Amino acid sequence: KRPRKHEDLNKQRDRGYIERFSCNGVLKILLNMEMNTAAVDLQHNLLHKRPDRFNVSDIIKAEIKKNLHLMPADIFRHILTLFFESLFKLGLNNVYFFLTDKDFAQVSAAQKVWPNAKIQICFWHLKKAIKKRLTDNTYPKVINYSSYSAHQVFEFIDIEFYPTPPSQMTPVQKKSFCFCPKELRPKILDMI
To answer: Which of 101, 121, 104 is nearest to 112 (CA)?
Structure first.
Protein backbone atom coordinates (compact mmCIF):
# COMPACT_ATOMS: atom_id res chain seq x y z
CA LYS A 1 0.00 0.00 0.00
CA ARG A 2 1.47 3.37 -1.05
CA PRO A 3 1.58 6.17 1.50
CA ARG A 4 -0.68 9.11 0.82
CA LYS A 5 -0.07 12.77 1.45
CA HIS A 6 -2.05 14.34 4.26
CA GLU A 7 -4.90 16.48 2.99
CA ASP A 8 -3.90 19.39 5.25
CA LEU A 9 -0.99 21.16 3.50
CA ASN A 10 0.47 22.28 6.86
CA LYS A 11 0.83 18.65 7.92
CA GLN A 12 2.63 17.49 4.80
CA ARG A 13 6.32 16.82 5.22
CA ASP A 14 7.13 17.72 1.63
CA ARG A 15 8.71 21.09 1.16
CA GLY A 16 8.18 23.37 -1.78
CA TYR A 17 10.47 22.77 -4.70
CA ILE A 18 13.55 24.91 -5.02
CA GLU A 19 13.74 26.57 -8.40
CA ARG A 20 16.52 24.86 -10.35
CA PHE A 21 18.85 26.46 -12.88
CA SER A 22 21.12 24.90 -15.46
CA CYS A 23 24.19 26.58 -13.98
CA ASN A 24 25.97 23.34 -13.07
CA GLY A 25 26.34 24.67 -9.53
CA VAL A 26 27.94 22.19 -7.15
CA LEU A 27 29.20 22.37 -3.59
CA LYS A 28 30.78 19.20 -2.28
CA ILE A 29 32.49 18.96 1.09
CA LEU A 30 34.18 15.69 1.94
CA LEU A 31 35.39 15.32 5.53
CA ASN A 32 37.76 12.60 6.66
CA MET A 33 37.65 12.67 10.46
CA GLU A 34 40.35 10.01 10.83
CA MET A 35 42.91 12.04 8.89
CA ASN A 36 41.49 15.47 9.85
CA THR A 37 41.13 16.50 6.21
CA ALA A 38 38.46 18.31 4.25
CA ALA A 39 38.06 18.50 0.48
CA VAL A 40 35.87 21.28 -0.91
CA ASP A 41 34.64 21.45 -4.48
CA LEU A 42 32.66 24.57 -5.41
CA GLN A 43 31.49 25.16 -8.98
CA HIS A 44 29.06 27.62 -10.50
CA ASN A 45 29.24 28.03 -14.27
CA LEU A 46 26.35 30.35 -15.24
CA LEU A 47 24.88 33.46 -13.69
CA HIS A 48 21.16 33.45 -12.94
CA LYS A 49 18.77 35.27 -10.66
CA ARG A 50 19.18 34.47 -6.99
CA PRO A 51 16.53 32.09 -5.63
CA ASP A 52 14.06 33.93 -3.39
CA ARG A 53 14.26 31.55 -0.44
CA PHE A 54 17.99 31.87 0.20
CA ASN A 55 19.75 34.93 1.52
CA VAL A 56 23.39 35.87 1.21
CA SER A 57 24.80 36.31 4.70
CA ASP A 58 25.65 39.80 5.93
CA ILE A 59 29.30 38.76 6.27
CA ILE A 60 29.48 37.80 2.59
CA LYS A 61 27.63 40.99 1.57
CA ALA A 62 30.11 43.08 3.58
CA GLU A 63 33.08 41.24 1.99
CA ILE A 64 31.73 41.88 -1.50
CA LYS A 65 31.04 45.57 -0.77
CA LYS A 66 34.50 45.98 0.74
CA ASN A 67 36.07 44.47 -2.38
CA LEU A 68 34.00 45.99 -5.20
CA HIS A 69 37.23 47.21 -6.80
CA LEU A 70 38.26 43.58 -7.39
CA MET A 71 37.27 41.27 -10.20
CA PRO A 72 34.77 38.50 -9.29
CA ALA A 73 37.55 35.88 -9.51
CA ASP A 74 39.60 37.86 -6.97
CA ILE A 75 36.60 38.15 -4.62
CA PHE A 76 36.00 34.41 -4.96
CA ARG A 77 39.67 33.71 -4.16
CA HIS A 78 39.42 36.02 -1.13
CA ILE A 79 36.26 34.27 0.14
CA LEU A 80 37.91 30.87 -0.38
CA THR A 81 40.95 32.11 1.56
CA LEU A 82 38.69 33.20 4.43
CA PHE A 83 37.02 29.78 4.38
CA PHE A 84 40.35 27.94 4.38
CA GLU A 85 41.62 30.20 7.19
CA SER A 86 38.57 29.28 9.26
CA LEU A 87 39.34 25.59 8.66
CA PHE A 88 42.93 26.28 9.73
CA LYS A 89 41.70 27.93 12.96
CA LEU A 90 39.45 24.93 13.63
CA GLY A 91 42.52 22.70 13.67
CA LEU A 92 42.99 21.72 10.04
CA ASN A 93 46.55 23.04 10.04
CA ASN A 94 48.68 20.03 9.10
CA VAL A 95 47.73 19.88 5.43
CA TYR A 96 50.39 17.99 3.49
CA PHE A 97 48.49 17.53 0.22
CA PHE A 98 45.76 19.66 -1.35
CA LEU A 99 43.85 18.05 -4.21
CA THR A 100 42.14 20.36 -6.68
CA ASP A 101 40.67 20.49 -10.18
CA LYS A 102 43.18 23.12 -11.39
CA ASP A 103 40.97 25.96 -10.12
CA PHE A 104 43.42 28.87 -9.72
CA ALA A 105 41.37 30.45 -6.93
CA GLN A 106 41.57 27.21 -4.93
CA VAL A 107 45.29 26.86 -5.61
CA SER A 108 46.21 30.41 -4.56
CA ALA A 109 43.93 30.35 -1.49
CA ALA A 110 45.37 27.00 -0.39
CA GLN A 111 48.95 28.21 -0.94
CA LYS A 112 48.27 31.26 1.21
CA VAL A 113 46.79 29.28 4.13
CA TRP A 114 48.93 26.13 3.85
CA PRO A 115 52.19 27.28 2.18
CA ASN A 116 53.95 23.93 2.72
CA ALA A 117 51.14 21.79 1.29
CA LYS A 118 51.82 19.99 -1.97
CA ILE A 119 49.06 21.01 -4.38
CA GLN A 120 48.05 18.30 -6.84
CA ILE A 121 45.28 17.72 -9.33
CA CYS A 122 42.95 15.05 -7.99
CA PHE A 123 42.92 11.63 -9.67
CA TRP A 124 39.43 12.05 -11.17
CA HIS A 125 40.33 15.40 -12.79
CA LEU A 126 43.72 14.05 -13.88
CA LYS A 127 42.07 11.09 -15.61
CA LYS A 128 39.47 13.39 -17.19
CA ALA A 129 42.22 15.70 -18.54
CA ILE A 130 44.16 12.73 -19.96
CA LYS A 131 41.00 11.32 -21.63
CA LYS A 132 40.34 14.74 -23.17
CA ARG A 133 43.90 15.01 -24.48
CA LEU A 134 43.89 11.47 -25.89
CA THR A 135 40.79 12.28 -27.97
CA ASP A 136 42.07 15.70 -29.14
CA ASN A 137 43.48 15.29 -32.64
CA THR A 138 44.54 18.88 -33.23
CA TYR A 139 48.24 19.01 -33.94
CA PRO A 140 50.14 20.79 -31.14
CA LYS A 141 51.63 24.19 -31.96
CA VAL A 142 54.63 23.49 -29.73
CA ILE A 143 56.20 20.11 -29.08
CA ASN A 144 57.68 19.65 -25.61
CA TYR A 145 58.96 16.14 -26.07
CA SER A 146 62.10 14.53 -24.75
CA SER A 147 62.73 11.05 -26.11
CA TYR A 148 65.33 10.51 -23.39
CA SER A 149 62.86 11.31 -20.56
CA ALA A 150 60.14 9.21 -22.20
CA HIS A 151 62.53 6.26 -22.55
CA GLN A 152 63.54 6.54 -18.87
CA VAL A 153 59.91 6.20 -17.78
CA PHE A 154 58.87 3.61 -20.41
CA GLU A 155 61.71 1.50 -21.79
CA PHE A 156 59.66 0.38 -24.81
CA ILE A 157 59.76 3.93 -26.25
CA ASP A 158 62.41 4.22 -28.95
CA ILE A 159 64.96 6.87 -27.99
CA GLU A 160 65.34 7.75 -31.71
CA PHE A 161 61.65 8.68 -32.04
CA TYR A 162 60.78 12.36 -32.29
CA PRO A 163 57.49 13.78 -33.62
CA THR A 164 57.59 15.78 -36.85
CA PRO A 165 57.69 19.52 -36.07
CA PRO A 166 54.57 21.44 -37.26
CA SER A 167 56.69 23.56 -39.63
CA GLN A 168 57.71 20.41 -41.57
CA MET A 169 54.21 18.94 -41.95
CA THR A 170 52.02 19.24 -45.01
CA PRO A 171 48.41 20.45 -44.58
CA VAL A 172 47.20 16.89 -45.34
CA GLN A 173 49.43 15.47 -42.59
CA LYS A 174 48.16 18.05 -40.10
CA LYS A 175 44.54 17.32 -40.99
CA SER A 176 44.95 13.54 -40.68
CA PHE A 177 46.92 13.79 -37.44
CA CYS A 178 45.78 11.35 -34.74
CA PHE A 179 47.22 11.93 -31.28
CA CYS A 180 46.19 8.52 -29.97
CA PRO A 181 44.34 5.74 -31.82
CA LYS A 182 41.00 4.79 -30.24
CA GLU A 183 41.99 1.20 -29.58
CA LEU A 184 45.03 2.28 -27.50
CA ARG A 185 43.22 4.80 -25.26
CA PRO A 186 41.89 2.23 -22.73
CA LYS A 187 45.36 0.69 -22.42
CA ILE A 188 46.89 4.09 -21.69
CA LEU A 189 44.21 4.91 -19.12
CA ASP A 190 44.87 1.56 -17.41
CA MET A 191 48.52 2.60 -16.96
CA ILE A 192 47.52 5.51 -14.72
So the answer is: 104
Three-state helix/strand/coil letters over the chain: CCCCCCCCHHHCCCCCCCCCCCCCCEEEEEEECCCCEEEEEEECCCCCCCCCCCCCCHHHHHHHHHCCCCCHHHHHHHHHHHHHHHHHHCCCCCCCEEEECCCHHHHHHHHHHCCCCEEEECHHHHHHHHHHHHHCCCCCCCCCCCHHHHHHHCCCCCCCCCCCCHHHCCHHHHHCCCCCCHHHHHHHHHCC
- List the domain boundaries for the chain: 10-121, 136-190
Q: What is the per-residue pLDDT across 96-140, written as a single tens digit (0 to 9) for each?
A: 998 888 788 899 999 999 999 999 988 888 898 899 999 999 877
Residue 141, strand partner residues: none
